Target: Corrinoid adenosyltransferase
Amino acid sequence: MSEQDPERDERHRQRMLRKKTVVDEKIAVAQQERGVLLVLTGNGKGKSSSGFGMAARALGHGLRIGIVQFIKGAKSTGEESFFRRFPDEVRYHVMGAGFTWETQDRQDDMAKAQAAWAVAVELMRDPDVALVLLDELNIALKYGYLQLEQVIADIQARPPAQHVVITGRGAPTALLEVADTVTEMGMVKHAFKAGIKAQKGIEF
Amino acid sequence: MSEQDPERDERHRQRMLRKKTVVDEKIAVAQQERGVLLVLTGNGKGKSSSGFGMAARALGHGLRIGIVQFIKGAKSTGEESFFRRFPDEVRYHVMGAGFTWETQDRQDDMAKAQAAWAVAVELMRDPDVALVLLDELNIALKYGYLQLEQVIADIQARPPAQHVVITGRGAPTALLEVADTVTEMGMVKHAFKAGIKAQKGIEF
Model:
């Protein structure tokens, strides 16, 4: 692999130099610093885990974070056991119910979603919280357990430097419109469809 | 929001019951347990953070993990400071160079990528390591710093229960073919393009 090829090395150097110019120009333009709203949606694997990865990053910078898990909650997860280890830096709230098709009780689901939203609003009123992760919020919105207009208004009223990360399939259009960053995670392949169980560390 | 609507509640209950049947059937079919190969690619935000989120999940289950960061490495990141706090559970290796357009030195990049790959192979030979995250490996493959056939052979020779997560844009087709789960992260919107700086806890 370490073959000597001075011409190729030189072409690489030129190409990378041009790339560096382009990248540096883009960086020079992007100078605004403020809290961003990120939405991670789509059917592919990686939405919640990406939110938890940003939570880990923020902790690495000594920031304080808040996590609210909507919908999930009946069974314990790796993310919950892990992030609960840092009670001084992480405020963690899990909505007390399983996936909605487990409960089949709309009134109870709604009451729990609204209680979870009240915790989210509290986190979004605290300027000491640098990042708020609203995991699977999109599912609660999709089932109409929360009012979208109120949810958006509450998010927009947060402290200017605070980041909010929202995950879950089927993010509503109005939420995408007010978001700064939106990723649509497309499922190209999923092990589950090939008969492989959801596994520790990967899916939960 | 908590409006009483018994008919709607009943329709919800029926719909969720049907959904539960479908979900339960899928779960019953997916009973195989083994290490999976996940590839997170595409241009959207969330690939590396998703890998780090799975690392956090695995730690929550008391598992041991290995992380190798290819390409990145010139500047310190939140993920590195954070995961280095757990030296007994996490083996962390950062390839010693910035993004390749910063170095513009193909020979040096190749030597460093190969040294990083040697660390990855060591992790993939250790059955005590439950999950190996190969962050931005796709970039090293894209530039031809590593031989794809060898990389795939090394991954396939890992312990049967070990999970491998690979991130980075432009994953090669041959890698997607051998992967169990593939997510293509599509960029719908990115704050950076709207003039917002890469920020702590979000991008690094």
Chain A has one domain: 33-194. The mean pLDDT of chain A is 92. Chain A touches chain B through 96 residues (CB under 8 Å).
